[in-house]
């Protein structure tokens, strides 16, 4: 008795992976990663132009780099360094330093305002960035759902949706950073 043959069709790679976040990590081997005046030299790549946000101190040694690509096509490099500088020990370091506490403020989580201040009952004036962008997002996602999956226009619209999500995330990060610095 022969086993039944089942017809199989070609399996294509998932197109959603093209819209996903990608990362690549590489370790330093004999100085193959270098920072050169507004450029970074990475293995298997030539000099890549970059915006450096912080200067790496001279006593730090680069250990590895992680290059990540966001869904919107932006590239970021995270550089891992090791500090070989040993601080000089003094006789005063063994005694704990007492700091003067000026005021204590407790923050309680709040569903409708992010947090509530324990002293004055003040809440954060949290603008709901996602809810503000909900109509735009829904419209862009509706357009995306009408596109033929895998087509050029589908990829282009997926990028539009990803850009809007990234904008919302950046607005949240910016608000939280400003709120924590006040």
UniProtKB/TrEMBL annotation:
InterPro entries membership: Transposase
Residue ranges occupied by any Probable transposase IS891/IS1136/IS1341 domain in the UniProt entry: 88-181
Name of the protein this chain belongs to: Putative transposase
């Amino acid at each position: 008795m022969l086993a039944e043959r089942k017809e199989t069709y070609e399996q294509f790679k998932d197109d959603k992976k093209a819209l996903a976040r990608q990362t690549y990590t590489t370790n330093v081997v004999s100085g193959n990663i270098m920072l050169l005046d507004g450029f970074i030299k990475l293995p298997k790549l030539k000099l890549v132009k970059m915006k450096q946000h912080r200067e790496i101190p001279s006593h730090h040694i680069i250990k590895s780099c992680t290059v990540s690509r966001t869904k919107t096509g932006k590239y970021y490099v995270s550089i891992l360094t090791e500090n070989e500088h040993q601080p000089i020990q003094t006789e005063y370091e063994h005694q704990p330093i007492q700091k003067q506490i000026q005021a204590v403020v407790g923050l309680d989580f709040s569903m409708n305002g992010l947090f509530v201040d324990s002293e004055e009952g003040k809440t954060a004036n949290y603008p709901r960035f996602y809810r503000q962008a909900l109509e735009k997002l829904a419209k862009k996602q509706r357009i995306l759902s009408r596109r033929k999956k895998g087509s050029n226009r589908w990829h282009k619209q997926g990028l539009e949706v990803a850009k809007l999500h990234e904008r919302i995330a950046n607005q949240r990060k910016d608000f939280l950073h400003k709120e924590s610095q006040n």
